[in-house]
Structures are given as C-alpha cells and as structure tokens.
UniProtKB/TrEMBL annotation:
Keyword field contains Glycosyltransferase: no
Entry GO MF terms: isomerase activity
Gly residues bias: start-end ranges: 19-29
Keyword annotations: Isomerase, RNA-binding
Originating organism: Ottowia pentelensis
Name used for this protein in its record: Dual-specificity RNA pseudouridine synthase RluF
Length: 279
C-alpha cells in the first residue's frame, strides 16, 4: 500500500504484520528484514538481499543494511526499481522428458535446465516474451520430477512463485497420471485385482519417513492407470506410496500444477508462464 500519493513512482511500503506492535503485544518481535519482505509476499529472501545490496530498501526512511532486524512498528519501503527488476523475471513451463534430473547434474545425468534454449521454445507459445540467455541466470526448478518421470516442471527466477509452489505452507495441487502393475504379477487389468481397501489407503492412511501423508485424491483412469492428486511433494512420494500397497509404478506423468496444465506442450519443449496464468 503506497505511503505517498499514487502519482509517486519511487517506492511502495511493505505493510507491517498485524496483531500488535512491539514484543509486548502478540509476541511479535524483531525479524530480519529479508524475512519481513518475504512474509509480505513481495519477494523471496534471496531477492530481498539483492534489493538491500542495491539500495532499493529503506527502513524508517534510511537505506537498509544487510542483516538488519525490524519490528512491526518499523516503516519499510521499497523503491520502484525493485518492482521493475522483478517484472523482468521469467517463469518457464517445461515438459520434462525421461532421463533428465530436475536440479543439479548427478550421476552423469543432465539437469532439465539444459533443455531451455531458443531452439526448444515451443512455437505455439502465445506470450510475446523472447528468449534471452540472461533468463537462465538464477532459473531454478520449483519442485521436482525424478529422472524416470515426465511431464510438467516449473522453472522460475521469481522467488515468490517458488515459495508459493514449494514453501512449507504450500497447498498447491499436483496432478499425475500413473501407470501401475501389481508387484510381481504378469496379468493385466490391475484395477480388477487391486483391493478397494488398498485404494482407500492410497487416498489416506499411509506414512512416509515416520510422518502421516496428507489426504490425496486417487481414482482409476483405466485398467492400468491411476489419477493421483497430491498437496505435498516428498521425494519419490508416489512411487513409495504405491510400493506400500503392492503396486509397481511403470510410468508417471505430471499433467497439472495448481490451475496450470501441461496441455499439448511436446516433450522436451517449453513455454513461458503467461501474464494471465496463476497457479
């Protein structure tokens, strides 16, 4: 909310947390400035540190210094240059093929970001954004797909989007199509042989790493394929869930994150998140 008249182009205010001012009201004490900016949804902590280094953040009218702590009573403002720089950050939707890892290279396998170049940009992309090598700087996956899985992978320069998708409090749905077979069985029509009580366990009641899983939406799409919708993302979660109920995953494809669909995007190609698209 601006602290100056709307015509002022210079800065905007980071609103203070509600629930009292100072440590004596509501227990709200000083926090690091980068956390305050991130909690307000203005940026990620890393972006906040960049803004502070560039002199784009002020506390009570004075330029902020790295590591400073602020309380609810402190007036934090952000220069408009920060908003302009943030607007240039891109978010990319990739149809990750098999054989690529989501993050850093490992065991000789290339990271998915190596697929992002001008030649693999989907020709049907409706945005007007043009690819530039600078868009690769700081581009990181917001979530993961293991090397044997395919489908929608989000890579972003925008810390707000990353936090929205993979932050500790994220409730964003991820939808998968999962081809399965009964472990050790050769017969087809897995659906007919799979007990209904185990399907119910997939929906709710399993634990991984000693922690109960959040309820999931699980239904049969056909005799060999499940549709699974999760609101969390533990490592190899779907494969491990299926193992616990006697199923083997033979194919896994992510087709949706929030309200953003993989759609007809070809494997190995990518497009930009459109200006009107929200997760």
């Amino acid at each position: 909310m601006p602290d100056t008249p709307p015509s002022s182009p210079r800065w905007r205010r980071a609103p203070a947390p509600t629930g009292g001012s100072g440590t004596s009201q509501g227990g709200a004490g000083p926090v690091r400035l980068n956390k305050r900016l991130a909690d307000m949804g203005l940026c990620s902590r890393r972006e906040a540190d960049e803004w502070i280094e560039r002199g784009w953040v002020r506390v009570n009218g004075a330029p902020a210094v790295m590591g400073v702590k602020v309380g609810p009573q402190d007036r934090v403002t952000v220069e408009r240059q920060a908003e302009a720089a943030q607007a240039q950050r891109v978010t990319i939707l990739l149809h990750k093929p098999m054989g690529y890892v989501s993050g850093q290279a490992e065991d000789g396998h290339q990271p998915a970001v190596t697929l992002i170049n001008a030649h693999s940009h989907w020709r049907e992309d409706r945005t007007r954004t043009r690819f530039a090598p600078a868009q690769l700087r700081g581009l990181a996956p917001a979530g993961r797909l293991d090397i044997d899985s395919v489908g929608l992978l989000v890579l972003t320069q925008d810390g707000r989007i990353a936090r929205h998708l993979i932050g500790q409090d994220s409730e964003i749905e991820k939808e998968y199509l999962v081809r399965v077979a009964l472990d050790g069985a050769e017969a087809r029509n897995t659906q007919a042989q799979f007990p209904s009580e185990k399907l119910a366990l997939l929906r709710h009641g399993l634990q991984l790493d000693g922690q109960p899983l959040k309820p999931a939406k699980v239904s049969w799409q056909n005799e060999e394929q499940l549709r699974i919708v999760l609101r969390e993302g533990k490592k190899r979660q779907i494969r491990r869930m299926c193992e616990l109920v006697g199923l083997k995953v033979v194919g896994l494809k992510r087709i949706r994150i929030g309200s953003v669909l993989l759609g007809p995007l070809p494997a190995g190609q990518w497009r930009y998140l459109g200006p009107g698209e929200l997760f």
